[in-house]
Amino acid sequence: MLTAIVHIDCDAARIPEVAAQIAEIEGVSEVYSVTGEVDLVALVRVREHDRLADVIADQVSKVEGVLRTQTYIAFRAYSRLDLESAFALGIED
């Protein structure tokens, strides 16, 4: 499972609508409205590297109201939760 953390700048008047639309995109697991330098943070989880471009460049960045995205690819997760098994859903690689 590949994870990307996407920082999203958007039209401030449309934050709730933009967040809701992004949350509906397949591959986006969570969207948070946050304080700080960006308006939204989305977690994208996909099985194949090529899907990152499909989700982020071809869908998230084209949502009306999105002004800019900045993507961080996660190398390794450090957590007490076993996220890999939580997202496996019984599907074999």
Automatic annotation (TrEMBL):
Source organism per UniProt: Cellulomonas oligotrophica
Entry's SUPFAM superfamilies?
Dimeric alpha+beta barrel
Protein name per its UniProtKB record: AsnC family transcriptional regulator
Q: Quote one Gene Ontology molecular function term.
A: sequence-specific DNA binding
Q: Where is the Transcription regulator AsnC/Lrp ligand binding domain?
A: 6-76
What does the record list as GO biological process?
response to amino acid
Q: Which InterPro entries match?
A: Dimeric_a/b-barrel, Tscrpt_reg_AsnC/Lrp_C
Q: Which GO terms describe its cellular component?
A: cytosol
Segments crossing the lipid bilayer? none
What keywords does the record list, in alphabetical order?
A: DNA-binding
